[in-house]
Amino acid sequence: MPPSKRPAPSTLNPPRVKVRGRPAKNDVQGTATSREAAERLSENTRPYRHDSVDHVVGRLTQAPGQGWSQAHEDAMDRMWQESEHSQAVVNMIEGARKNKGITTHGHLLKLCKVCLRVFQMSPIRFLSFSHGLEYQGDRGSSATFSKAFSNELDGLIIHPAFDGKKETLAIVIQYAVICRINNRRPWPNTASTPNCPALAKMAEVLKTSESGEFEDSVHRTHTDARRECGKGGKKPSKLSDLMHAVGETVKESSFNGIADPDEKLEYRGEVVWPASLYDLKNITKTLDETIWDDDSWNCTVEDALHSYRVVFHQQEAPTGEQLPEYYERSHKQKLRDWMVKSGLDPHQQVSDEPGEGLELAAMDGDEAQDQAQPCDVPRGDGTTSLAPEVRPLSQATSNPYASLESQETSPPEGASLQRIRDLEKEVADKEREIANLKSEVASLKAANPQNGTTPALSQIFSHRRIGLDPESYLDWDDITGT
Q1: Is there a single domain that holds both residue 381 and residue 439?
Q2: What pTM value is reported for the model?
Q3: Between 394 and 447, where is the model more confident?
Q4: What per-residue confidence (pLDDT) applies to 139?
C-alpha cells in the first residue's frame, strides 16, 4: 500500500492521509485547485506576441549606439560562433527539414511558450547567471534542454506554489541544487534581507563565515533557524516551508549528488548553481507528496500542467519554424548581458568556457542549456537606457531560417493601422493597471496611516521597468512568500 502524504514542515495538526503518487490516467482531469490556479494565471498574464521578440527574447543583431559598439557585437558574435549552441541551431533546422518541416524539439517549444507567457522571458534567460542558475545536462552536452528536463520545468513554472513568480522558482531551484551537491558557499547572493524570520536568521548565520565556506550545510543552518523561530513563537514563511521540505526530500533521496568541480559553479566568472533534472524532480516530488497549509498548493504538478493546457488552449508564439531563431536570439542576448555586466573589453580574446556546457553523471537524456535577454546598455554617464534598435538586414544578408519560413514583406497599410490600434490598446491597459495599483497604494496608506509608505509599497512601481536588467540578481524583496 502506498504511503500517505507527509505534512508541511510547519504544520502542527496531524497529517491528513492521502494516497501519494501519480493519479491514474483517467483521473488526470485537473483538480478543482489546479483549475482555479490556471484560471488565475490566465487572468494575471498576457499572451506573448511575436512582434515583441526583440524586446522580450533578444535581437539577432544589435546596432551600435549608447555604449554598445560594433566591436562589442563582433566579439559577441565570435563567442556565439565558437559555442556549442550555434551548432545546436543548425541541428534544429536540419532536423526539421528531415521531419517534413516539423520541429524535432517539441518539448523545447512547449517550454518556450509557457515561459514567455508566465515569466515574459525565454527559458534560456530564466536558467542563466541573471538568476544564479545554469542548466546541467547529463550526457556531455548542455547545448539544449533535454525532453525530460523541459517537461519537468514546464510543470513547475505554472504550479500555484510559485504564483507565476520567476524569482520564487529560481530561489527554490538554487536551494535544491545546494542541498544536492552540499555546497557551502555564501548564499543567497544578495545584500537584501528576507522578511521571513527563519530565512533572515539563516542568511545572517551564513554571512558570518570568514573562510567563505560554512561549517554546517545550508539546509542544516536553515533547519536550526526554523527551530529557533519556533521557540521564539515566530512562524516561518511559506517559502521557508517549501525550501525546507525540498531539503528533506533531497536528504531522503537515494541519489546523494556529486561534488561539482569549481568550473561548473561559474558562468564566465559569474556565480551559478548547476540545475539538473534531479533538482527539478526533487521539487516536484516535494510538491506532490506534501500536504500544505495553503490549500491552493495542494495539487500535483501533473494536475497543474493539465489544467494549464485546458485553460490556455489558444495558439501562442513561437511556432515550430520560429524555434531555432528564438534559440539563437536568446543565447546571443545572454552573451550581450554578460558582456555588459562584466565590462568586457570587446578587443579582448574570449574563448568558450567550461561553464557554457555543464555535464552530469547520468539520468536526463538529450541536450540542454542557456538563456538570454535584451539588456540595458550603459550610457557614457554610467546610467542605463534601453538597448538601441537593430539595424535592418540587407536583402543580401543570409537568412538561415529562409527554408523554414518565408521572408516577411512590409505589411499593408491596413495591417499597420491595426497594429497601431493594438499598441494603443496595450498602452491603455497598462495605464489602467498603473491607476489600479496607485489606488491600491492609496487605500493601504489610508488604512495604515501610521506606517506611511512601506518599502514594499514603494517598490511596486520601481520594479516595473521597460526592458530587462542584466544585473537583476535575485532579491528577497522580489520573492513571494517571504
Answers
A1: no
A2: 0.72
A3: 447
A4: 66
Q: What are phi and psi of 210, to 5 degrees?
A: -90, -20
Residues 263 and 122 in one domain: yes
What is the H or E stretch that residue 6 is in? strand 6-7
C-alpha count within 13 angstroms, C-beta hemisphere, residue 470:
24
Read off the pLDDT of residues 190-221 as tens digits, 9 standing for 90 and up: 777 788 999 999 988 888 875 566 778 999 99
Residues 365 and 315 in one domain: yes
**292 and 305 co-located in one domain:** yes
Residue 108 CA, chain-centre distance (Å), reads 14
Task: Give how far Cα 99 sits from Cα of 3, 150, 238, 402, Å.
Answer: 44, 21, 46, 16
Surface-to-core class of residue 470, CB atoms within 10 Å of its CB (0-12 exposed, 13-18 middle, 19+ buried): buried
Rounded Cα distance, 407 and 414, in Å: 20
**Cell numbers of 92, please?**
534544429
What was the pLDDT predicted at 365? 45
The closest of 478, 459, 449, 467 to 54, measured between CA atoms, is: 467
Task: Say whether the peptide bond before residue 188 is cis (omega within 30 degrees of 0).
Answer: yes
pLDDT at res. 186: 80
Q: Are residues 180 and 146 in the same domain?
A: yes
Q: What is the CA radius of gyration of the chain?
A: 23
Domain count, the chain: 2
Q: Which residues pair with 291 in a beta bridge?
A: 7
Mean pLDDT of the chain: 77
Please check whether residues 430 and 338 belong to one and the same domain: no
The DSSP symbol for 133 reads E
Same domain, 350 and 458: no
Lowest mean per-residue pLDDT among 86-95, 172-181, 469-478: 469-478
Domain region containing 98: 31-387+467-478
